[in-house]
Please model this.
Amino acid sequence: MLLAAGFGKRMVPVTLTRAKPTLPYLNRPLLLRQIDYLRAAGISDVVVNLHHQPQSIRSLLATESRAGTTPATDTFDLDGVMIHLSPEAERLGTSGGLHGAAAQLRGDGTLLCLNSDMICGIDLDAMGAAHRRLGRAATLVLVPWREGCGYTPVQHDGSSLLGFGETMAGGHHPPGIFTGIHLLEEEILDRLPPGPSEFLPDLYLPMLAEGVPPAVVVSPDRWVELGTPDRYLAGQMSALEESPLRGRGCRLSDGAVLGPGTVLGDEVEIGAGVEVTTSILMDGVRVGNGGHLREVIAGPRTRIPGDCEVQRAVLAPAILPAPAGGFPAGVRAWEGLLRADF
Model:
């Protein structure tokens, strides 16, 4: 079951009941798309941090792996890319996870660190060349600033980080947006404290204060962050160029209409007279006759009653009986479903 309003970030504070990297992007899990991206760049060893819902990641990798999992090492072979898991008993944070995996990362030169909740076409060879040319311990990969994007502006002078947030004196370049991609030398591992830590307060701001700022490089290539329901929808809609995408075994009854920017997973059934627009219906969703779904994310095997008008909501099968303490904040039971509006 999926419960994803807010995706663990802003908006409604609801948790995912499966790890975010296992969510589909155009019907292929985000984690597998990331591995495809790294394989295409010639990367053959990847470490994946595990904390929230770790079994969902293990199950996905075991299904895709050539030889399944090696129990003693948690290692998977995905078409020549070796995936090594780094479990976190407690959430270690953005840079704490890097420190926690340090033993697996040392000895192979420059490290590439990236987030799981994005899709991009950034040229990693070009970013690596820029990192070597700039000669810093850390390089942050940015994309150009977009007004109204909602991200924190990253101030820079074209090659060095100046700070985060409002414009500051000395900056002669427009700000950028941080993509979550870093290129790091192993000495960075020695700067990180043990236990939980975050890149900004525990690494990059101290480096700025010491006068050894990280480098920055601005990529012109496509980058889409998917960490909220709005962005998860918009990122897939832009890739579709408005045409619907249908998985295997889908069935549409008479008069059903798939509007622009709709993604159907496998074995989805749409009832008669239903209109679905700008929505993602994952594997096994069933929609009764009549009604209209617009900007809806429906988790696997959700049953949506007929004659429903649903807009801007995350839907999932109801948990029966209700969990101890009731449903998470921002979620309500609705016609046999869980619903979180965004």
